[in-house]
């Protein structure tokens, strides 16, 4: 090939690679992050339906969660490590059973704990994405029927409202319910989640209807609308 032809070929290849790089470049402000749920990582969430569930003799859980990885106490180190990896966002859950350990009783101490977690994210340049519910329920609500309880949508709306009032100004993004479509099926038809029912179609339908209504209500709480 003529030397001039090689130069033209090199320029063509370079131009094509340049276009590929431009195509694969993420836009400014794109968030790269990690995600966890409160129950799976915090440890010691003894006041939840899942703690009850995993300690039954017939539980499908292979082992109790116990202290998990103790994220409840180690969050500062973990958030710093996440930032050290070059990530810029973090989705984590807050535990309803800690924030409202008994019906109508809200813990200022637990809300302050989650606020310190949000502060730690901001200190490291991490955008916090907060999940208000990730499968687990307070035991007192489980005893009333859990997701299928008639008052579930109102109780969830109240919890979100109180938590958002305390934390909303530090939250980057909020997820009210994580994976709601499968909760009715898993707990009332398959028996793999609390309350462990199988073939309870009416219960599953009530749970699904309540979850949809809870999602609608919680998304409209004033603290979320003002964010």
Structure summarized in a few sentences:
The chain is built from eleven helices and four strands, in the order αβαααβααβααβααα.
Topology, please?
Elements: H1 3-24, E1 33-35, H2 38-42, H3 49-54, H4 71-84, E2 89-93, H5 96-99, H6 108-123, E3 127-131, H7 139-142, H8 152-167, E4 173-175, H9 183-188, H10 201-219, H11 222-226
Helix pairs in contact: 8-10
Structure description:
With 227 residues, the protein is of the alpha/beta class. 52% of the residues lie in helices and 7% in strands. The protein contains eleven helices and four strands; from the N terminus they run αβαααβααβααβααα. The chain has a four-stranded parallel β-sheet with strand order 1-2-3-4. The chain is globular, with a radius of gyration of 23 Å.
Primary descriptors:
227 residues; 4-stranded parallel sheet; single chain
What is the strand content?
5-15%
Provide the low-confidence segments as ranges.
Answer: none
Please tell me how large the radius of gyration is: 23 Å
Instruction: Output the number of helix runs.
Output: 11
The main sheet orders its strands as 1-2-3-4
The shape, in one word, is: globular
The residue-averaged pLDDT reads 91
Structure classification:
alpha/beta
Work out the number of β strands: 4
| Residue share in helix | 40-55%
- The N- and C-terminal alpha carbons lie at a distance of 63 Å
Instruction: Describe the sheet with the most strands.
Output: 4 strands, parallel
Order of helices and strands: HEHHHEHHEHHEHHH
